[in-house]
Amino acid sequence: MRSVAVVLALIFAVASAWSIDYTGYTVQRCSTNSEDKRDLLYGITNAFGIDVLGEFIDSVDLLVEPKRFDLFQGLKCKVIVEDVQKKIDDEEVTLQASRLEFLQNKNDSDAYHKTYHTYDEIIAKVNSIAAQYPSVARVSSYGSSLEGRDLIVIRIKGTTTTTKKTIYLNSGIHAREWVGPATAVYIIQNLAEKYGKDAEVTRLLDAIEFVITPESNPDGYSFTWSDDRMWRKNRNNNQGNRCKGVDLNRNFDVYWGTGSSNNPCAEDYHGTAAASEPEVKAMQNLVTGLANKIGAIDIHSYGQYIMRPYGWTNALHPDEAIIRQLGNQIVADISDVNGATYSSIRSAELYPVSGASDDWFTVKLNLWGFCFELRDRGLYGFRLPEAQILPTGQEIFRAILTYADFVLANFNKD
Ligand SMILES: [Zn+2]
After folding, report:
1. Which end of the chain is more exposed for a tag (fewer CB within 10 A), N or C?
2. Which residues belong to the active site?
3. If you measure from the C-alpha of residue 230 to the centroid of ligand 1, how many angstroms do you get, rounded to a whole number?
4. Which homologous superfamily does the CATH classification assign to the domain defined by 107-228+267-410?
5. Ligand 1 centroid – CA 176 distance (Å)
6. Residue 315's CB: how many other CB atoms inside 10 A?
């Protein structure tokens, strides 16, 4: 048992480091159940640079600073978090407690998945999985972030000599969505360790190579640990503009700039050109170069949605009937794991956006590019309690296997 002083020192070391103070900020849930209301709300968020934290079919969650409160009076918004900084501080206490527990329980193989980890810890864990299962897993770098952090990719496939199809998975592109990388590491570990033991995983890995980038925005992610828990974008300095960062998930080379912001201060700022950001350029190069692609998924939070194409337009994808079936199947299978309720929708049903990875997978690579929005539905938002990391990992691992089974049987674009 560590001394109380050590625990307090750990807590203080992190809690005192925040450079952004959210005291008095609220999270408000505003109804968007008519097209007029939706347009009005998004008009306000765009005009005043209000951060949209979560999107639902009939509402949005907004991060509102005190001086903007009157904008939302009369709009039927409900305060769901009274003081965002207090919530961040409370979360910091549980984070440090759970990290201490992890350090003290190295023999529990699930202990890693009961807390959150820094970028360095994620890289170390992925490397250790590859070292433990060298016949199925291999780690390499696919580039560098703007600040020079390694962008890593792990490839996992069975040992048979048959030519493999490829499925690509990404997470972490939005820095503050911590459960994404946590889930990706859970998936990586379970694919690697279940090969040769679990019949379904073995069959899939003998047919498919999974190519996984668990943390594709390492600068932003590191910044959420050091400075600003609510940071979303990368850390581009935008040529001296006072506002930093580009939203990497508006920067892909697909209808770039048509449904995103050209204001560097906006949370959905799309950058100076399509694929202007090194993190996006590197991912586009990596994925373009993969052989025999049959699927791709980008993992985000929050909202509990399994989203199929398209995101940039409300038009239906030519394969809508079959991809809707795929989305519905994933939702049903997720529910069977721990009872969680996800919804199967088209991406654009939340709000059409451009330059997103899932559209790039779909439009540019001709895949059924999916986007998963993981837990929860706004109660905890980006800082899902540690106790939910493992169940989220379990249900999304199931979702990935269902997607893989389905595209292996049904996707044929050759
Ligand atoms: Zn996201």
Report:
1. C
2. 373
3. 12
4. Zn peptidases (3.40.630.10)
5. 8
6. 12
